[in-house]
């Protein structure tokens, strides 16, 4: 299997990704729904391959995923998915109805702007803390110096030296509880998040839905959100979901 350091494969679609990365999972799910063959290149995040000059030349944010389409890099998972929709419109994943398309984008916005941050605050101590807290000051300084995005540098500093507090964790759980309520309300129309058709809204939210079980210790259970629970069962039953390999996130 090629690595970040090998010459780019000469194929139409190449995906630089990581198995456990929620953003990568969105793109894998989209590619599988569309039935698009691609070469996957695994970026070893714990080895900081995302911040090497070779990878930063493709994605200056130093994160996965990056899609190469005929050698041209496209970044940001939700942008990549819209790009795939533009270039490969067969098997459409954007609703034809304009108001459903708007709803699809609101869910994508919610996932990008609200859900990702809340899950980081909820569980980064547990996911990244065991590794990051063992870094020496030099190792942390090196990680921060090679991380291009200021917000991400601060997240690494927090998890390595000043773990998220119980108050912050509870606030993040509240935010995610609100998201569950919004999903439940949206799905009254259903059966999909944007309305009548399966769309990028469902794809972009799925890697976070796989993590709803993490809310149980905060007293939130999916069974208390029956429409969301039924939606999640429908998403998981899709053959492309299994092919995209979106399994529960493992804590270190
Ligand atoms: N907004 C970006 C987020 C990408 C992102 O944060 N990727 C994470 C994995 S889910 C990553 O590469 N982390 C590596 C690091 O922070 O060093 C997208 O949707 O593509």
**Alpha carbon gap, first and last residue:** 25 Å
Lateral arrangement of strands in the main beta sheet: 2-1-3-4
* Mean pLDDT across every amino acid position: 95
The CATH class assignment of the largest domain is: Mainly Alpha
Question: Any idea of the CATH topology of the largest domain?
Answer: Glutathione S-transferase Yfyf (Class Pi), Chain A, domain 2
Small-molecule binders: glutathione
Helix-strand string: EHEHEEHHHHHHHHH
Helix content: 40-55%
> Per DSSP, what share of the residues sits in E-state strands of 2 or more residues?
5-15%
Q: What is the number of helical segments per DSSP (H or I, 4+ residues)?
A: 11
* Global morphology: globular
Query: What is the rounded Rg?
Result: 18 Å
The total of beta strands comes to: 4
Query: What structural category do the secondary elements indicate?
Result: alpha+beta
Query: How many structurally independent domains?
Result: 2
Flag low-confidence runs. none
Query: Under the CATH scheme, which architecture of the largest domain would be assigned?
Result: Up-down Bundle
Largest sheet: 4 strands, mixed
Summarize this entry quickly.
With 252 residues, this protein is α+β, with helices and mostly antiparallel strands. 52% of the residues lie in helices and 7% in strands.
Structure commentary:
The protein is α+β, with helices and mostly antiparallel strands and 252 residues long. The chain folds into two domains: 13-87, Glutaredoxin (3-Layer(aba) Sandwich), CATH 3.40.30.10; 98-243, Up-down Bundle (Glutathione S-transferase Yfyf (Class Pi), Chain A, domain 2). It is built from eleven helices and four strands. A four-stranded mixed β-sheet has the order 2-1-3-4, with helices on one face. Glutathione binds next to helix 1.
